[in-house]
Amino acid sequence: MSYVDGFIVPVPRDKLDAYKALAAKAGALWKEHGALAFVECVGDDVPYGKRTSFPRAVEAGEDEVVVFSWIVYASREDRDAVNARVMADPRLETDPARMPFDGKRMIFGGFRAFLEL
């Protein structure tokens, strides 16, 4: 079974094109270093819930859209090795001031797959 890193992040609508460009570069790096898949999705039907929701989870403002992303790896061990290579790659943008989103509100985690159809 595969291993998946998942992410939810609020992105200002006026910075969405910059986010997409950054995601394309990051995705290429992750794939080059061994990720099996790299997927980025812009919220299309993500209503603001009464108790909880994707927008509530990341405290998305009126001027922001929620982006849901995931990276697929062969295993947890493979994920750890791929991420170590990516983080050591000088092409990876790491300056928070240059990011087109607020990384402090990003939700992320690693997940072991238990069903793949």
UniProtKB/TrEMBL annotation:
What domain of life is recorded for the organism?
Bacteria
List the SUPFAM superfamilies hit by this protein, alphabetically: Dimeric alpha+beta barrel
Quote the protein name from its UniProt record.
DUF1428 domain-containing protein
